[in-house]
Amino acid sequence: MGASADDHHYHPQDTIARTMRTTGLTGSVGLFASAVQNTLARQNVGPWGVFTRTGATIGILAAMGGTYEFVKTSSANLREKEDHWNVALGGFFSGAILGLRARTFPALLGYGAALATAMGGFEYTGGSLFGKRRDPNVDEFERREKLRTQWRTPGEQTLAELGEGRGIYGPGYAERRRERIKEAYGIDVPTSHPAAS
């Protein structure tokens, strides 16, 4: 019992370090997106157009990433729990940053609620597009063998529950079938089928 209690104990995280790292990462993504926008512009705006013309993309993405990580980590530290509600809170405030561009209160709430729902739901369902994450400490072969044998039922139990037929036949089925046909119709069924010519 003591080991499982230690496994579920929350360990506080460094909010500022994580926020700075995420802000830098999303700011880099924003810089790339701004460079692509600058490249696709019809006018020749020069290399500084990345900052002067489409630089708002850098700021918005950096602010969204930093806000998300700060709120998510702060919420986890305050609640001492790592779950989907932290992600939903971070998503709401991050979406609200995106909603600030529209300069209306409904847009702020709408973008926040949409991103909170999407990110919170994604985290609640396992945080992966490919299903729930597997425990790295469990051997995959042993896990699959356990799954194979966990729901396996003995053949006698299956026959008792379903009965014979439909591809499920117990030992001695041919003899029992022959006897039933003999009793019902008076026909002797041969024990072996004649060879095909």
UniProtKB/TrEMBL annotation:
Membrane topology (UniProt): Multi-pass membrane protein
Major subcellular site: mitochondrion
Family matches, as InterPro entries: NDUFA11 (IPR039205)
Transmembrane among keywords: yes
Cellular localization per UniProt: Mitochondrion inner membrane
Regions that span the bilayer: none
Protein name according to UniProt: NADH-ubiquinone oxidoreductase 213 kDa subunit
Source organism of the structure: Aspergillus mulundensis
